[in-house]
Amino acid sequence: MSRNFTVASIVAPIVLLAWGGPGAYAQTNAQPNSPPSAGPAGLGLSPEALAELREVPPPLVFRETWKQPPYTGRLTDPKRRVTQDAVTNPNLQLQLYGPDAQDVEVYNHYGHFDLWTGLTPSPVAVTLRDRNVYFDLTGLATLRARTRTEDLHVLHPVVKLPDGTLLVGSQTLSSPQPLMGGGDFVVSEVTFDAQRWFQLDPQNLVVTREVKSPDLSRVDAIGFADLMPSGGHGFSGCSNISWMELYAKTHRR
């Protein structure tokens, strides 16, 4: 008799808990006036941060892979110089900045064409402009590229505003520097909402004043700048810009 009473006293609360379910247990232990459980809106995030979490990444606007401009005879440095004929996308216009920008050349490395700055003894910038649309670089816009840099060179993002102002960003792209020999091409990306912007003299590629919170909702052209002089052929400072991809919203011109 004593054994039956002991088993019943243990089993009964378990049966009652199972019958009532988790909700009954929670109601029994809940404190009066306790707040509801935290959902996505209860994580302490601002409305702006929550809106960004819900934002859908923008689509691919363009992918540029370059090509060798037409030439005759032996392929020499002057015949490698980049022109509009190096652009594969008919909607894109090539724009070059800097006193030695005409010396940017097209090379093929590991089956990919790229733009090489090795023979430019002064800073240079390369941008692409779409004939039909402005680029909206707000939100989750991203510029991805396959690049290689040598001997402390880095690449900065460059944007051109509708009024012709050229801005250079503080973010940089660079590739690992080996102890000997050339570096490797790497794929990396640049965003536009978390960097400082500076005005860039389009003639001499000199960085001037900082521009606070520029309007990047209608960008005329986009690309990269190498702000260091290059040293020619061999193991010297330079940069290579291989394929470029822009993910952004657009607005008709």
Q: What's the CATH H-level superfamily name of the largest domain?
A: Galactose-binding lectin
| Widest β-sheet, arrangement of strands | 2-5-13-8-9-11-12
% residues in beta strands: 25-35%
Q: N-to-C SSE series?
A: HHEHEEEEEEEEEEEEEE
Portion of residues within helices: 10-25%
Q: Tell me, what is the CATH class of the largest domain? A: Mainly Beta
Number of strands: 15
Biggest sheet features: 7 strands, antiparallel
The computed structural class is alpha+beta
> Which stretches are poorly predicted, pLDDT < 50 over at least 5 residues?
1-32, 34-39
The residue-averaged pLDDT reads: 85
Tally of distinct domains:
2
Task: Give me some keywords for this one.
disordered N terminus; Jelly Rolls; alpha+beta; 16% helix; 253 residues; 6-stranded antiparallel beta sheet; 2 domains; globular; 34% strand; 7-stranded antiparallel beta sheet
Summary?
By secondary structure, this protein is of the alpha+beta class.
Structure report:
With 253 residues, the chain is of the alpha+beta class. The chain folds into 2 domains: 2-50, no CATH class; 57-252, Galactose-binding lectin (Jelly Rolls), CATH 2.60.120. Helix content is 16%, strand content 34%. It contains 3 helices and 15 strands. It has helices at residues 2-29, 47-54, 77-80; strands at residues 60-64, 92-97, 105-109, 112-116, 124-130, 133-136, 142-150, 156-160, 166-169, 186-191, 197-200, 207-211, 221-226, 238-247, 249-252. The strands form 3 sheets. It has a 7-stranded antiparallel sheet, with no helix packed on it. Mean pLDDT is 85; it is low at 1-32 and 34-39.
